[in-house]
Structures are given as C-alpha cells and as structure tokens.
Amino acid sequence: MPHFLKQKLHSFSVLRLLATMAILLVSVLLPEIAFAEDAELALPYEEGLGKFQESLEGPVPFAISLVGIVGCGAMLIFGGEITGFMRTMIFIVLVVAVMVQAKNVVSMLGGTRSLSDTAYVIPDTPSLRYFS
C-alpha cells in the first residue's frame, strides 16, 4: 500500500475517533440534551398512530382477521399448486391478520396490560416511589 494512502487512512480513523469522543463527551456532560424526553410533549404523528391502534382493537377487526386466518390456512392446506407470488401474498395476509389478533389473544390468555400502560414501582426507595 502506498505511503500517502496510509496517511489518509490514518487521518480518517483519527477524525472518526475524535467525532466519537465528542459525541460521548456531549452525552455525558449534557444528558438533558442527549436523552431529550418530555412526557407532556407528544410528537405530531402519535395522535394518528393512537387512533390507528384503537381502530384495530374492536370486534370488527377481530372478526375480519379471524376470517383472514381461516381463509389463508385453508388456502395453504387445500390450495394445491399455487404460484410463489400468490403464496407470498397469502403469508402476508396471514401475518397481518395474526398481528391484528395479537392483543385480543393475549388478553384472552390472561394478559391484562401492556408495558406502555404500567408504572414501575420501586418498593425500597421512598423518594423514588414511581418510575415511569
């Protein structure tokens, strides 16, 4: 390897090391900026995602996804010779139907709350009673 390429490679690795150390230094000295989080300020798209999540939790999506699971299963079992594209589409519909049903199935099996709904209780420290 020529000498000038070694020098350029060495200078690039030194710059990368300096940039990494600068980012680390900022995150250690200014944690408010590095780990910016404010529970009261929501991102602009969170309201839309919340509405979308609520629309996937009712009885109609449950029934549609149940029909989708049964239909996809029947197609895969009794479909005979289907093309690779059609088989991929069936698997995509099956996965989406299972994802829609996931919360309902978990709640039927005894799960009551998601991790985002819970508050973590720290029992031995009275000053830090709730950490969320």
C-alpha Rg (nearest Å): 26 Å
User: What's the helix count?
Assistant: 5
Number of strands: 2
Low-pLDDT stretches are 118-122
Query: Tell me about the biggest sheet?
Result: 2 strands, antiparallel
* Arithmetic mean pLDDT: 75
Number of separate structural domains: 2
Question: Structural class from helices and strands?
Answer: mainly alpha
Question: First CA to last CA: what distance?
Answer: 55 Å
User: Could you spell the SSE succession in H and E letters?
Assistant: HHHHHEE
Shape: flat
Helix content: 55-70%
Which strand order spans the largest sheet, edge to edge or round the barrel? Answer: 1-2
How much strand? under 5%
Mind explaining what this structure looks like?
- With 132 residues, the protein is mainly alpha-helical.
- It has two domains: 1-37; 41-131, no CATH class.
- Helices cover 65% and strands 3% of the residues.
- It contains five helices and two strands.
- The protein has helices spanning 3-29, 31-34, 46-55, 59-78, 84-108, and strands at 120-121, 130-131.
- Strands 1-2 form a two-stranded antiparallel sheet.
- Strand 1 and strand 2 form a beta hairpin.
- Helix 4 crosses helix 5 (84-108).
- The longest helix is centred in the first third of the chain and has 27 residues, at 3-29.
- It is flat, with a radius of gyration of 26 Å.
- Residues 118-122 have low confidence and may be disordered.
